Structures are given as structure tokens and as C-alpha cells.
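Chain particulars:
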Amino acid sequence: MSKGSLKSTIAVSLTNYLDAGAIVAGASGLTLWQKYLGLTEVHLGWLNFISANCLGAALGAIIGGFLADKYGRKFIYTYNLLVYMLGVLLIMLSANFPMLLAGFLITGISVGIGVPASWTYISESSETNNRGRNICISQMSWGIGPMIILLLGMFFAPDGYLFGWVESIAHAIGGADLSQAAVNVFSSRIVFCSLLIVAFIAWNMQRKLEESNEWKVSQETAKAKGENTGLWHAFKVLFTNKTAIKTAAFLATIYLTWNLVASVLGFFQPHIYETAGGISNEQANWMNCIQWAIIVAVTFVTSKVIDKVSHKLIYVLGLLIAISAWVIIVTVGVNGTAGLWLFTILWGIEGGLSVQIFYALWGSELFPAKFRAGAQGLMFFVVRGLSAVWGLTFTYIYGENGEGFTVAAYCMIALLLISLVVGFIGCPETRGKSLAQITKERYGEEY
């Protein structure tokens, strides 16, 4: 791997750290904000709905994708994390629900803006023989983010090892007469402060990146031909090209069916372990943290082989392991640590071979540079938007105390089976090919 592509990959991958970190930080601190601000379940539902996990990211993705195609990938990296820092700062300083809601929304939109640009830039700045590896490195940061944020959340929590330090900071800032709820919520403020620091570091790295050569060549070619390079024209081309439509349908299907499962686990897994599994909050968080560590480790191994081994083989193996995890939890049962640990380990292994790796890789390979980021932004908008709706639906299926867990588990198995079958049938042969070669094979000389 060249030093240039590795450096740019690390800089851009911090976007994924901040994405996943914002989701986990938001979820882990909800109860503390609820008690501090006297929020209802409806308030919490709105926070989840407009956050980086759902609608906020969906809106940002469709905006960011087309902005990246119109003004360049560097445009996103010059300004977007300033928006992220504003959103995180609002959350840190929140004294009422409107401030908190605005912070979650702004952070979510920024996350969405950055995601399609990051996957696109990584592919465009990679050499042909390490494109998959660089995407895996990017994916590793998606696992490292939740792992670190979960650890910080547990250490700074009201019953955590470092809560005494949190209390000292809270009283130093807010005075000695702060209520206990106001003191407790400082643990969430500090976790978000860690994201603010990482975002500042990432912004300083990303704003120094060079513009993507692929994008520059695409723009120069379009101008030489007198073609329209406007946003609406790119949107129109995307929806009138049969190859692009089929590609978008294929990628959206495999990613949506997998993400409907993954998004539920991302937000509700500790809750499921506690209610249906009957374990403590601390045990649930530790198991979740260990699972993220497994994901990071397996993703690292995948990065070593993805450019050398059949993509279809890795893709199918990952989904077979994912389905096995859910089958085991249904047959062995969720009411015991053995079943929960088996599920934790298997889903962790699956995460290192996940559909998201191939969605990120294929999404940045199978579209021309002209509307590459826009296509990804549109698909991400659809997936995250529907995931938001599914998250609400899941709570009704699951029930208040996990009485609908078995039905929910079979729904998950069905979704993963769809992703497996569609991915197996439509898996593209792109390994070892340049982006220009892939574009020419799929779209001809026109792009």
C-alpha cells in the first residue's frame, strides 16, 4: 500500500469513527438526559429518529452525495466537520430539549454528508490492488468508534470507575448545588467532548487532503464535451441510465436487508440482552464492547485477503455466519449466557465480513465518477430512512419485555436470507480492475 493512499484513508476513515461514535454516544446517554431534562418516551423516540442512526444521516447523505459530485470531495472535507463540531457542541451544552434535539439533528446531518464522500474518496485514491484493503481499514474505524465510546460511557457512568472525576468537573462548572441528575448527565457531556476533540483532529487532517484525481478528470472531460455538470442533471442521468438503476437497486437491496438487522442491534442490543436475556446493564455493555473488538480484529484479517480472495466467497461466508447467529439464539435460547455469548461472538465475526464492507466497496466501484457519490448518498438516504421506520416497527414486534423476541428473530433471519440470495446472484467481478476499467465495462465510453 502506498503511503499516500494509507494516509488519506486514515484521515477519511475518522469520519466513520465519528459516525458510529455519535450513534453509540447518543444511545448510551439517553437515560441520563431523560432524567436530567424530564423527557418522555416520545422525546427519546424523536432523538433516535432524527439522529445519526436514522433520519438525520439519511437527509445528510442525499445532500452530501450530490455536493461531493458537484463541488468535489475536498469541498466536503473542508467544511463538513465544522458542522459536526457545532452539533456536538450543542449537545454538550444542552440545557433543554430543543437544544438537545437540534444537536442530534445537526450531528446526524453532518454524519450523512460525510459518509458517501468518504467511501468514494477512499476508492478513488486507492491503487487497484488495495482498494478493498483501504475500505476495510475505513470499516475498522466504524468498529473502533463504538468500542471506545462504550468504554468511556461505562467508565464515566454514575456507577463507573471514573465517576468521581465526572462529579468534580460537574461541580467545578455548575457549582456545588447541582442536582444529582445534572451531575450524572456530565458523563454524557464528557463522552461527546471526546468526539469534539477527534472531530477537530480529523478536520485538520481532512482539509489538507488533495482533490480526487478521478473527480477532476471527470469534470474536465464533461466540460470539454460541453456537458451539464449541475446537480439536477447528474440526478437525471442516474435515473435514466438502465445500468445505474439496476446497480442502485442491487446495492440498496443487499444493504437495506442487512442494515435493518444491524441498525436494530446497533441501538437496541444492550436493551435486548437486558430484557429478553435477563442480564445486567453492565454485563450487556461489556458483551457489546467485546463484540466490537471482535469486529475490528476480523475486519483487520479481512483487509489482508479481500483483494486476493473471491468477493463472493467472503460475502456468502459472512451472511451464513450472521444467519447462524440468529438461528442459534432462537434454538439455544436468549435466556442464558451461553446463547448470548455464542450470538455475541458470531455476530462479531460477521461484522468483520459484513455486507457494509461490500456495499462501500461496490458502491464506489460500480458507478461513474460523474455521479458516484450522489448514487451512494441516494441509497444511503433510502436505507437509513427505512431503518428509522423499521426501528419503530421493531419495538412493537419485540414488546415491552421481549415477549416478541422469537418473532423478531425470525424476521431478522428472513432479511439476512434475502441479502444472501440477492448478493450471491448479483455479486460483481471487480477485483483487480481499475475504476476506469470497471466504468468502461459497465457504461461504455460515454462516462
User: Anything to note?
Assistant: The chain has a mean pLDDT of 86. The radius of gyration is 22 Å. The longest helix spans residues 242-275. The chain is about 80% helix and 0% strand.
